[in-house]
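User: Fold this; tokens only.

Assistant: Input:
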Amino acid sequence: MAVGRGGVLELAVLGSLHETPLHGYELRKRLNALLGMFRAFSYGSLYPCLRQLLSAGLIAEEPPDEHTPGSAAQTARDVTPPLAGRRSKIVYKLTAEGKERLQELLTQAGPSSWEDESFGVHFAFFRHTEAEVRLRILEGRRSRLEERLDGVRTALARTRERLDSYTLELQRHGLESVEREVRWLNELIDTERAQAVRAKEDRSQAKDAGPVPDKTNE
């Protein structure tokens, strides 16, 4: 499966279906809420992606409510004749292979996961991501933004005298936005590191305590 733009959409689809099976329309709404926060989301790219995932065996189709026997919708369908020409909505669900692929994507912490269009999607599924991977992504994102800050500051210093007041304010606004995100990342990184230290201490204490004696036979 492709990396980059296609890989971001693949991660978003698999991650969304990991939560629950979804109709195509529900999946579109969820992806729009997720991806639309970080970049323009094209509905035209969704269905080719779904076809690829189906072909690869990473997701499967099922009739609606098949995964919830006895539901009201299922009962209504049993007693109500189907309307002529009416198509049932297709529900997409994750397969075992799809779950493995999702876990593979969630372990990726290289430069592609730090970029503007992919970082937010990775962050949205941090609850399913290992702590070490989360920390590498956060540190990588911060490093990328710090490089951007250096470039913007240098360019601003060189061109300040030639910019009109509106362009200058726009540049300052962009600079402040990046600075805010760096501060936010610093807080997240500090929290992740503190949690890692606590987890290490807890494991050490549990190891020192040893097994709990079995008193059932006393």
